[in-house]
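User: Reviewer 2 asked us to show a designed sequence for the structure in our supplementary figure. I'm pasting the structure tokens here. Could you produce the per-position amino acids so we can include them in the response letter?
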């Protein structure tokens, strides 16, 4: 089974558990994801055809629905700073994927401090802390309760 299919299966279980379902993005959103997002192609396919239709819990984090993401000013700010927001930590910190076309198993996922977002929106790398590489790693860490609770814990664990 491909890494993308494994991720879709895990997302389906998370959605089922919360009473939701996976959704297909509107055609305009799919076009934008394919042409402008600069995300891993496998993640673009998942976001386009198999992303949770409602917010779902991912350990102490939430994965946001595309509808919520497209209405979020924080998501737009993250996008302009080189990140694609996929959800948030319980603290409100932004859960993001670095906007690079790395394979989905190598993409960098991290947190942006919600407390410093607006003050540093022109230089988000200063308020970004990596959490893991690879979407399956994120899902596994959530299941095993190994995710840092917020940006500061992620930054501290990186420097430990």
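Assistant: Here is a per-position design you can include in the supplement:
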């Amino acid at each position: 089974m491909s890494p993308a299919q494994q991720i879709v299966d895990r997302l389906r279980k998370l959605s089922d558990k919360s009473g939701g379902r996976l959704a297909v993005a509107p055609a305009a959103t799919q076009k934008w994801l394919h042409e402008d997002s600069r995300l891993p192609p496998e993640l673009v396919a998942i976001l386009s055809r198999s992303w949770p239709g409602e917010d779902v819990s991912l350990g102490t984090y939430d994965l946001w629905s595309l509808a919520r993401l497209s209405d979020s000013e924080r998501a737009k700010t993250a996008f302009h700073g080189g990140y694609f927001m996929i959800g948030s930590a319980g603290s409100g910190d932004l859960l993001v994927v670095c906007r690079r076309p790395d394979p989905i198993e190598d993409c960098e996922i991290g947190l942006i401090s919600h407390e410093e977002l607006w003050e540093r929106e022109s230089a988000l790398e200063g308020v970004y802390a990596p959490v893991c590489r690879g979407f399956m790693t994120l899902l596994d860490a959530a299941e095993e309760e190994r995710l840092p609770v917020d940006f500061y814990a992620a930054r501290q664990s990186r420097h430990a």
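For the response letter, you might also mention the following. The longest strand covers residues 83-89. The beta strands are 22-23, 51-52, 56-58, 61-63, 83-89, 94-98, 108-112, 128-133.
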